[in-house]
């Protein structure tokens, strides 16, 4: 799990999931993120902040929502 800034969130499910470590993915020569849906926009942005992205495959609703999130001031 990541927060909106792409930092790993300590959560019990992290110990039960098999996946490649995000720092390993970050070092890849080419990172592709494929995800869509307006509800996934914040997660897509968090992933990009954490590991970077060379190629993003998404849909219009996610793209529009990501742009909206990037334009709006953050309420911290």
Describe it for me?
The protein is mainly alpha-helical and 76 residues long. The chain has one domain. Helices cover 37% and strands 8% of the residues. The protein has 3 helices and 2 strands. The chain has helices at 22-26, 41-51, 60-71, and strands spanning 32-34, 55-57. The chain has a two-stranded parallel ribbon. Helix 2 links the parallel strand 1 and strand 2 (55-57). The radius of gyration is 13 Å and the shape is globular. The two termini are 19 Å apart.
Note the gap between the termini: 19 Å
**What's the total number of strands?**
2
Proportion of residues in helical segments: 25-40%
User: What does the largest sheet look like?
Assistant: 2 strands, parallel
Order of helices and strands: HEHEH
Poorly predicted regions:
none
Shape: globular
Count of distinct structural domains: 1
Strand line-up across the major sheet: 1-2
The helix tally amounts to 3
- Mean of pLDDT: 92
Q: From the helix content, strand content and strand pairing, which structural class follows?
A: mainly alpha
Cα radius of gyration in angstroms = 13 Å
Approximately how much beta-strand content do the residues carry? 5-15%
């Amino acid at each position: 799990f990541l927060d909106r800034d792409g930092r790993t969130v300590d959560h019990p499910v992290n110990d039960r999931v098999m996946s490649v470590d995000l720092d390993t993915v970050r070092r890849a020569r080419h990172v592709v993120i494929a995800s869509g849906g307006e509800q996934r926009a914040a997660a897509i942005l968090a992933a990009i902040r954490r590991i970077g992205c060379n190629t993003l495959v998404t849909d219009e609703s996610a793209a529009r929502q990501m742009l909206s999130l990037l334009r709006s001031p953050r309420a911290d």
